[in-house]
Amino acid sequence: MLFDNDGVLVTPPADETQAAATRDAFREVGVDAVAQHHLDAIVTGVTVADLSEICTAYDLEAETFWKAREHHDARSQRQAFRAGDRNRYDDVDCLSTLSQNCGVVSNNHHSTLAFVLDRFDLEPLFETYYGREKTIESLRLKKPNPYYIERALSDLDGDSALYVGDSESDVIAADRAGIDSVFLRRPHCRNADLDVTPTYDVETLRDVVRIADGHSVDESRAR
């Protein structure tokens, strides 16, 4: 079984925190005034093409800016966890009852994912984990690209699995990897209206455990 991290195992980062980290990155490379739509583009899932266009607008070298952005973003996330502004979900403990080998695949930085697993003593639950490297190229590999999901499946010697996520891109990535998906309706995505259909649609990780154990879950099949 494979799990997303932010919004599944731990609470997701706040948009305001990510925006502040992005402003800090711009300041580091000499830009004090940034258009709101550029901040929004970076926070909500910037592509390589978007990043190139944004950096051109401010006469910045993309590699230099992205290095600064990733540094400040990772720092802000660690600070949020240490301050208690972000935490793990209470139902994560139920994953210890799973008999299947498990892994984590996240669009967050690999180093941030390692920090989270260590801070909340989650490492024993998972055989493998992948986040993206702090490079521009990693933007091409993040979900919905199934690249990291496929790497994790290879580590687990599995060609069938469940991927548990909280976003439409998670469902698409699972489908592209040829595995079933679980859309987990945490509070931040409780009323999300998806344009894709997950294999299962549930509200807690306890539902996921029941699915993995082969038990029925009321209304867990996607609507």
Automatic annotation (TrEMBL):
SUPFAM superfamilies: HAD-like. The keyword Lyase does not apply. One of its GO terms (biological process) is DNA repair. InterPro entries: HAD-like_hydrolase_sf, HAD-like_sf, HAD-SF_hydro_IA, HAD_2, HAD_sf. One of its GO terms (molecular function) is phosphoglycolate phosphatase activity. Transmembrane segments: none annotated. Keywords: Hydrolase. Pfam families: HAD_2. Belongs to the HAD-like hydrolase superfamily. This is HAD-superfamily hydrolase.
